[in-house]
């Protein structure tokens, strides 16, 4: 069936469920290779200006990698991202936090996998990884974004489905 699987992990509930599903697959396909990847994107705060008639207002967006970031009100959708932080706000600390979180889940289930930190735009980096490593199944979580936020940010899952050459399982 599948011999080379990857899980895209970002610490969200959806990615944790995707990792759990991948672990299930590895248990029933013990010869399959599993890679767990997470992408460090550049989260520098960007300021844009939104024109509303004769008024121009600054709009700040810190965690959006999108052409529409300059039009999004600050904090849109942050309520879904609210979780206890166990790390500093540096890329290195966040990577260490994700690495430890992934490894804990793998250890609990006594599962072997490669855990890799990549850098760049999430969609482009994951697609490149799939092609370079000949991944035949990518397992991803659904973000749970809806409404206006999904319109502005777009869905990484949707972009991966469109751009990826491998089969993709979206776990909800």
UniProtKB/TrEMBL annotation:
Coiled coil: none
Domain UspA: 1-172
Gene3D superfamilies: HUPs (3.40.50.620)
Annotated CDD domains: USP-like
Family assignment from sequence similarity: Belongs to the universal stress protein A family.
Protein name (record): Universal stress protein
Organism: Planococcus versutus
